[in-house]
Structure prediction request, 85 residues.
Amino acid sequence: MANTKASKKDILRIKRNTLRNQDVKSALKTSIKKAYIAIDEKSETKDSLIKETLKHIDKVQSKGIIHKNTAARKKSKLALASNKA
Prediction:
């Protein structure tokens, strides 16, 4: 258990940031899934969905929620799937 006032505040801050990061990661996963579904169905809006997803990946990576190599891997995999379709 935290003893100092600062460490008690740290616990609250970490909890708040963890919840926010989980929400952002969940939204990112949803965005990626929607893009893959659009690619599979050869949807007319697939290009815009892919563009939005790539933008979302970059934004999450710039905030430090995911590692830059993870972001690059996800973007590469999405581009590869898009080019195959």
Helices lie at 5-40, 46-62, 68-84. The two ends are 54 Å apart (CA to CA). Residues 29-85 form one domain. The first helix runs from residue 5 to 40.
